[in-house]
């Protein structure tokens, strides 16, 4: 008789190996960026599995021999029950195109798709709510350009990218990542970008919520050098597809600006996938990075200087209002 139970990937090597083997058989990468995993076993044999990473359902697979036995529904229900127990009302799922109909039958709605993976969501607030918030900020000028940044914190390099776009576009939408995986909180980063961007009246600063370079669309971004390149490419392609299919049309965006990326392999992968996915629909403009004292200006460099209390370097790399916030933050932190 088949039994559903939790799989502890870090504690049970035998079950972890079975989990990885099942995912490989299903044509999925064994992505261990998960918080909770369940499996259906018959004896020692793993027949089906699924995982949660935050509010994201992923790594869902069923053995070919048992795909007719409704095991997938049992796995998904167990994961949804876990989310309900945690009070989570909004969830996402990554799945292969062949299983989209199943998730649609459970009330999920498709957000974006590539040839390899589809992203769907269920619950509220959802993409419709986010799109409605964007529509309220839409300006009529064309062409419209976009920049997506983490700005952890915003540097003179970020400002240079904004200025470059603002000089040649009637309106520029700057999206600041909402994911809470940075030294500065989402609210802090959004506020600082708005302060700096106030220099250019044609710039509109907006949060990304879950829909751009987020824990949902592109979790590998936050792992940087620890990210698996193949997994990062799949996620980047999906993130780019979501922007192209759902975000850009709402604001009339036809250009996307990115910084040239000599430092981060994951960001370089992202830029590559943006170009491939956008095609002729959205022009990708790669801007050479700003240099100060012979080195690329980056938020990583600012955070390293902060850690060393090298305030002279910090002051060189950020605008005065940002430096003031950083100093106050450091003082209060001590």
UniProtKB/TrEMBL annotation:
<dbReference type="GO" id="GO:0016747">
    <property type="term" value="F:acyltransferase activity, transferring groups other than amino-acyl groups"/>
</dbReference>
<keyword id="KW-0547">Nucleotide-binding</keyword>
<dbReference type="GO" id="GO:0005524">
    <property type="term" value="F:ATP binding"/>
</dbReference>
<keyword id="KW-0067">ATP-binding</keyword>
<keyword id="KW-0436">Ligase</keyword>
<dbReference type="InterPro" id="IPR016181">
    <property type="entry name" value="Acyl_CoA_acyltransferase"/>
</dbReference>
<feature type="domain" description="N-acetyltransferase">
    <location>
        <begin position="1"/>
        <end position="137"/>
    </location>
</feature>
<dbReference type="InterPro" id="IPR005216">
    <property type="entry name" value="Citrate_lyase_ligase"/>
</dbReference>
<keyword id="KW-0456">Lyase</keyword>
<dbReference type="InterPro" id="IPR014729">
    <property type="entry name" value="Rossmann-like_a/b/a_fold"/>
</dbReference>
<dbReference type="InterPro" id="IPR013166">
    <property type="entry name" value="Citrate_lyase_ligase_C"/>
</dbReference>
<dbReference type="GO" id="GO:0008771">
    <property type="term" value="F:[citrate (pro-3S)-lyase] ligase activity"/>
</dbReference>
<protein>
    <recommendedName>
        <fullName>[Citrate [pro-3S]-lyase] ligase</fullName>
        <ecNumber>6.2.1.22</ecNumber>
    </recommendedName>
</protein>
<dbReference type="GO" id="GO:0016829">
    <property type="term" value="F:lyase activity"/>
</dbReference>
<dbReference type="InterPro" id="IPR004821">
    <property type="entry name" value="Cyt_trans-like"/>
</dbReference>
<dbReference type="Pfam" id="PF08218">
    <property type="entry name" value="Citrate_ly_lig"/>
</dbReference>
<dbReference type="InterPro" id="IPR000182">
    <property type="entry name" value="GNAT_dom"/>
</dbReference>
<comment type="function">
    <text>Acetylation of prosthetic group (2-(5''-phosphoribosyl)-3'-dephosphocoenzyme-A) of the gamma subunit of citrate lyase.</text>
</comment>
């Amino acid at each position: 008789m088949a039994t559903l139970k939790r799989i502890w990937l870090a504690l049970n090597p035998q079950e972890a190996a079975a989990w990885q083997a099942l995912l490989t058989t299903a044509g999925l990468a064994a992505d261990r960026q998960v918080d909770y995993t369940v499996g259906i076993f018959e004896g020692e044999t793993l027949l089906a599995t699924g995982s949660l990473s935050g509010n994201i359902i992923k790594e869902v697979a069923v053995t070919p021999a048992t795909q007719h036995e409704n095991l997938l529904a049992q796995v998904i229900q167990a994961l949804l029950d876990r989310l309900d127990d945690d009070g989570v009302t909004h969830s996402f799922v990554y799945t292969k195109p062949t299983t989209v109909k199943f998730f649609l039958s459970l009330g999920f709605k498709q957000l974006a798709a590539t040839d390899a993976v589809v992203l769907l969501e269920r619950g509220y607030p959802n993409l419709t709510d986010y799109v409605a918030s964007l529509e309220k900020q839409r300006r009529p000028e064309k062409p419209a350009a976009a920049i997506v940044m983490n700005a952890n914190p915003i540097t003179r390099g970020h400002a240079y990218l904004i200025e470059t776009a603002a000089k040649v576009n009637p309106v520029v939408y700057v999206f600041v990542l909402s994911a809470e995986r940075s030294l500065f909180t989402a609210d802090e980063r959004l506020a600082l970008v708005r302060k700096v961007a106030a220099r250019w009246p044609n710039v509109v600063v907006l949060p990304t919520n879950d829909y751009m370079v987020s824990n949902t669309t592109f979790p590998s971004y936050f792992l940087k050098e620890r990210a698996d390149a193949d997994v990062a490419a799949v996620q980047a392609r999906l993130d780019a597809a979501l922007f192209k299919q759902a975000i850009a049309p709402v604001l009339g965006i036809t250009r996307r600006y990115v910084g040239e990326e000599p430092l981060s392999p994951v960001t370089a992968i992202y830029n590559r996938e943006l170009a491939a996915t956008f095609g002729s629909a959205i022009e990708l403009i790669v801007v050479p990075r700003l240099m100060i004292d012979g080195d690329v200006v980056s938020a990583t460099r600012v955070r390293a200087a902060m850690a060393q209390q090298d305030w002279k370097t910090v002051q060189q790399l950020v605008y005065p209002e940002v430096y003031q916030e950083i100093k106050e933050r450091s003082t209060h932190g001590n």
